[in-house]
Amino acid sequence: MASVKLRARSAKTARNQPRSSAKTDARNDGRNEERGGASSAAEGGVAGRRSRPLNRRGSPEAIEKRRVARVFNDILGGRGAAAHKLDGRTERRRQRLLKELEGGKARGSRELKPLDVLQRVQELMDLGEPLSAIRKVTKVRKQSLAPEAIVGVVERLHRAYSFRPEVYRFVGIGEEVLREAGVLADGPRARSKSKP
Q: Is residue 157 situated within a structural domain?
C-alpha cells in the first residue's frame, strides 16, 4: 500500500476558493453541537419553524397583563383621571357590548343566548361599567322554572365560569337560587347547618 503525501494549499489557490474554509466549517459544527445538535435554518426548513414557540401576544393572559400594566402606570404615574379612561379599542368594545345587550343580538344578526348575556354583562363590569348603566340597556329576563330545577346547573356554571353574583340577575336567576347553588357566600353554610 502506497502512502499518500498531503500537500499544503498555495496562497494562490486559497484566494480563489470561497471564504468558507474547513476552519469556519469546523467552528460552525462546534456551535451546532453546543445548541444540542440543532441544524441551521436552511437545513431545518419547515421543521425548524414548527419548533418555535407560538406567538403568545394575543392570549387572554397577555392582554390582561398589558391592560393592568397600563392602569398601574397611569395611577402611579400621576395621571389620575386618565387611569379610568379606556383606550380606543376597549371603548369601542364597551359600546358594542352595550349595543348588543340593548338589541338582544350578537353582531346584529344572532339572538343572544342566556350565556351570551352573562358573558357580556361580566365583561362590561370588568371594564368598569356600573350596574345601573347596564340595567338601563338590558331587558332582565323572567324565569318560569322552579328553583330546584336550575340550582344544579347554576352551581356547575359558576364553577366553570366564576361569574359575579350580580350578573345572574340579568337572566332572571334570583337570590334564592344563587344561595342554594353556593354562588352567594352564605349559601352552602346555611344549608349544611339546617341539616341534622
A: yes
